[in-house]
Write a structure and sequence with these properties.
This protein has a two-stranded antiparallel ribbon with strand order 1-2. The two termini are about 50 Å apart. Helix content is about 80%, strand content about 5%.
Length: about 250
């Protein structure tokens, strides 16, 4: 009977560990997917890329029209409209911007981005629910436990991004291709920059910059969480040490 009780206790402990392990994993999941969501919906990221890589000169689309194209793409991704239908003026002639293959690829991209949205919302909801449950069950005693778990989540985020950065630094192009091979079940993403405007408007260097943009935002978020949580834990330990020393002086 005692053996059964001990075994049950260990099993319950493991079961209790799993939700908080998932909580720690949910921190980088939220930070990264939220940053990707921000990137896909950031007009500044699009417009800066258009200007940096002289897309207007390369494509014959004016900067103002490029900004509108970017807005139309964001609108398409965030709507239920199908298929994507974008016209613009190219060297003064109004025409459809994307061909059938590009439109098919953007439908796949839309599905992928919507999946990122779901992960961002799901991870945020999980984090909030677990925090709420922790405070309901433990009250103020939960604060240091929360700080420790957030610090671990922030540290995990930084470690993951550092590893990704190291890999990307030695072969971003290969990593980018592998991402497409894993993410898409067809070859619609294999476009020709000589004829396909999707890759002329968004060249590989644009996606490198966008990846750095996402990583920086996620790193900043992770640093804020890690530093704030760790600072609280250090302050709490220091306060406990001061109280202990004060008690020793009084008893001495």
């Amino acid at each position: 009977m005692a053996w059964f009780t001990r075994k049950t206790g260990v099993q319950m402990s493991r079961v209790g560990f799993i939700p908080w392990a998932l909580f720690i994993v949910a921190v980088p999941l939220f930070l990264i997917t939220a940053s990707v969501t921000w990137a896909f919906n950031s007009p500044g990221l699009y417009n800066d890329g258009f200007e940096k890589y002289s897309i207007s000169r390369i494509t014959g689309i004016t900067n103002s029209d490029l900004r509108q194209v970017g807005a139309d793409i964001r609108s398409y991704i965030n709507s239920s409209d199908e298929p994507m239908d974008i016209q613009t003026s190219i060297f003064g002639a109004e025409q459809d911007l994307f061909n059938a293959k590009e439109i098919a690829h953007m439908k796949d991209v839309k599905t992928l981005v919507r999946g990122v949205y779901v992960l961002a919302l799901g991870s945020a909801a999980y984090l909030l629910v677990m925090i709420l449950v922790g405070f309901i069950r433990q009250g103020r005693l939960f604060t240091p436990l929360l700080a420790k778990r957030l610090a671990l989540g922030g540290g995990l985020t930084l470690a993951m991004l550092a590893l990704f950065g190291a890999v990307a630094a030695f072969g971003f192009d290969s990593l980018f291709i592998k991402f497409h091979e894993i993410s898409f079940a067809n070859d619609f993403w294999q476009l020709d920059p000589r004829t396909d405007y999707l890759v002329r408007i968004f060249p590989d260097n644009f996606w490198f910059d966008a990846t750095v943009w996402v990583a920086v935002k996620a790193v900043v978020g992770a640093l804020v969480i890690t530093v704030a949580s760790s600072s609280y834990l250090v302050y709490r330990r220091y306060s406990s040490w001061q109280e202990m020393m004060h008690s020793l002086r009084r008893t001495g």
